[in-house]
Design brief:
Blueprint: H1 4-7, H2 13-20, H3 26-38, H4 40-46, H5 51-63, H6 72-80, H7 85-97, H8 99-109, E1 116-121, H9 127-131, H10 133-141, E2 147-152, E3 158-164, E4 181-187, E5 191-197, E6 202-204, E7 207-209, E8 212-218
Antiparallel strand pairs: 1-2, 2-3, 4-5, 5-8, 6-7
């Protein structure tokens, strides 16, 4: 098993071909995708619009409990028609059995509804880092920033999370659990004042993690 972020500078041509054709083993596909999320050169070489969707699909197939819901990236990829055939089939199978996710997907087709991205960082971020996830990924790999990022939908519900921290071994955790506790005091399109706490520690690729955060910030566009 290759550990792309620590042992490889770039993916080889054969690895890139296997990535595009989805012929990698699930864990290797996760690691390759994690590398590309942090490597703009390999991301451009992939010519694939659905990096986040691929990662989230494989991650969910590895560890998503039956009572959990689809991740933001899966819903986004489904609505944008950027998932591969296998990923789309898996999402459709879940939608057929989950009324909550079926209702959620309607919001992705309604472009008048806007999600809010909250970026909690231990240092101030410049405009490029705020707007570019790849820039944040590079800074995190260099140990210059540590962030916890939350996407909240127009109804005020978290639909995705992402850690950016060089202390994790291998892929960094993302996604969420429906058991996590989110409390919004204000969420009106202009201000978000909320708290978010994990129900219990999570485990992903030998990384144990938990969160308990509070934040208050104006919503910018």
């Amino acid at each position: 098993m290759l550990r792309y972020r620590t042992a490889k500078k770039h993916l080889s041509d054969s690895e890139m071909t296997r990535y595009r054709e989805r012929t990698m083993e699930a864990e290797e596909l996760v690691l390759a995708n994690d590398h590309m999320l942090a490597c703009p050169d390999c991301s451009r070489r992939s010519n694939g619009p659905d990096l986040k969707g691929v990662y989230s699909f494989v991650r969910s197939s590895l560890e998503m409990p039956p009572n959990d819901h689809l991740l933001f990236e899966q819903l986004e990829g489904y609505s944008d028609d950027t998932l591969g055939a296998r990923e789309r089939e898996e999402v459709e199978r879940h939608l057929a059995a989950c009324e909550e996710c079926e209702a959620e997907i309607e919001g992705f087709f309604d472009k008048t509804k806007k999600d809010v991205e909250v970026i909690l960082s231990d240092v101030p971020l410049d405009a490029k880092a705020l707007s570019d996830q790849f820039a944040r990924g590079e800074l995190a790999d260099q140990g210059k920033i540590h962030t916890f990022e939350i996407i909240i939908n127009s109804e005020g519900k978290p639909i995705s999370t992402m850690w950016r921290h060089s202390g994790f071994k291998g892929p960094t955790p993302s996604g969420l659990s429906t058991a996590d506790i989110f409390t919004a005091k204000t969420f009106d399109g202009k201000l978000v004042d909320a708290s978010y706490k994990s129900a219990k520690p999570g485990d992903f690729f030998d990384n144990t993690f938990a969160f308990d955060v509070s934040f208050r910030a104006a919503v910018t566009h």
